[in-house]
Amino acid sequence: MDPRASLAGVAFGLGAYGIWGFFPLFFRQLGHVGPVDVLCNRALWGCVFVSLILSARHHWPATLAAARRPGTVLRLGVAALLVGSNWLAFLWAVDQRQVVASSLGYFLTPLVNVLLGMLVLKERLNGKEWASVGLAVAAVGSEFLTLGSLPWISLFIGGSFGLYGLVRKQVAVNAISGLWLETLTMLPLIGLYALWQQAQGHSVFTGFDGLTQGLLAASGVLTALPLMLFAAAAQRLNLATVGMLMYINPTLQFLTAILIFDEPLQPARLLTFGLIWAGLILYSWSGWEKYRASQA
User: Fold this and answer.
1) Spans of all domains in the chain
2) What angle separates helix 210-236 from helix 175-199, to the nearest 10 degrees?
């Protein structure tokens, strides 16, 4: 592989996961706007921004061809519901100062993917992958003992994003075209919600001060930009390297929660994260071995 291409791929990957990792800092600036309103604006402005990107790249023919395939639209509609609910859960976590729980959810996602691969795709797990799943289950149990209840927000974030990845994996549409179709399918629901809120005397898309309106529009740009960077990274790097970079996002979220937002971290919760990190090490080790074997 060309070293310059690899270096560029790492830079694109760092950009993508860095933006995702600092999402809590950005969306905390919109703490005065309800999470559902932020979600609506994020989807609307994301659709607008991606439309501009598709126009600039002259990708409309391929995108519209995908839109004419009913099976593709149906799957992307399901993907839209999953990723939309994931966005809403994340926004709620930021609003409720539960970014530590959010980061745990995203740390869980790769291990959820292993479990879904076994249950849905009938993939066979090796010893390290079984151990990583076992450590994830132990981490959830530890969180239950620490909190006195199941970590629902972490499980929902990890589960919804894992399911989104599973559905999206089965649709042969590139990331940008897929995002346009996903946000487009969200618009009818968003429109109904906005009309209902308008009848209650509340405007979802207007009536904000200039800075807030700008941040809401920027949320759409920040929805698409890391996906574009990720796609560029994936084209230049092997899957093992991309897989290792994915931990940057929840790590930055975790550090932001502890060091900037001053969220409490009970000592017992360190066991939860220790188990998750151990599981991720085994998962990454297994993935690296599979990659090396495929290159032999």
Assistant:
1) 3-295
2) 160
